[in-house]
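Shipment paperwork, digital attachment
Item: protein structure file
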Amino acid sequence: MKLDLLKSQWLEIVFEGRNKVYGAYDLRKTNDKTTLKSLIIGGIIFVFLVSIPVLINLLPNGSDDSVLDQKITTVKLPPKEKPKENIPPPPPPPPKVDQVKFVKPVVAKAEEVTEEPPKVEELEKHKIGAETVKGDPDAELTVEPVGNGPSVVEEDNNIYNTAGIEVKPDFPGGMQKFYSYIGRAYSAPEDCGSGKVFVTFVVEKDGSLTDIKVIREVCPGSGKEAIRVLKSCPKWNAGEQNGKKVRVLYSLPISIQSAE
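Attachment content:
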C-alpha cells in the first residue's frame, strides 16, 4: 500500500501501539490547520504593512496649503524733514580774475615748441593758474580786511632740558667760579664722609634757582645744606630757546670732602 505523507494516515501508523495522549500526536494531527491559520494571519499582516503608505495618502489633509498665515511687519517711515526757514542766501561767487596758464619749462628743440611760455610782464599783472582764464572786467573787487593778529602773546612757561636747548644756562663767570662759591659757602655736617650730593633745580627766566630737590645725599643733613647754599646763590644767566629766555631744568653734583 502506497503511503501519502501529506495526509494524516501516516500518523496512525507511526503512533500505532503508542501513547496518543502525548502532545506530539495532537501537534502532528492539527499541523495542517495550524499552518493554514499562520499563512492566513501572516498574509493579512503583510498586506496591511504594504498598504500603509497608500492608506496615508488616501487620508484627507487637515491643513489647507492655499490659506497661509501671513505675518504683517509694521515699518516705521522716518518723519519728513520740514524745509528750513529763514536760510540766508549763499554768498555770491568771487569775481573772476585774469589768469595766465603756467607752462612747465622743458628743454626741447626749436621746431618742436608749440606754445610759448608767458612773459614776465604778463605774470606780474595776472595770477598763475592751470589754464588761461579771462576775468570779468565789470566785477566789483573786494578786499578782505587785514587782521591785527593776537593782542596777547602767550608766555612760554615750559621747562626745557639742557640736552636740547639752544643756549644753556650758566653761572656768571663760568662753572669754575660756581664751584668756588660752593666750596666757600657749603658747611659739611659733622662726621660726614666724602662723596657727592646730587641735586636738581630750575633756572628761571630771571636767573634765580627754584624747585631745588636732592636726589642723593652723602649723610643726613648734607642735602639740606646743599639746598640752603643754592637758595642763597647769585642769579645765573638764563637759558634761551628761539631767541627768548626760557626755564631750564639743571642737574648738578656737589662734591664733599670729609674734614680730617
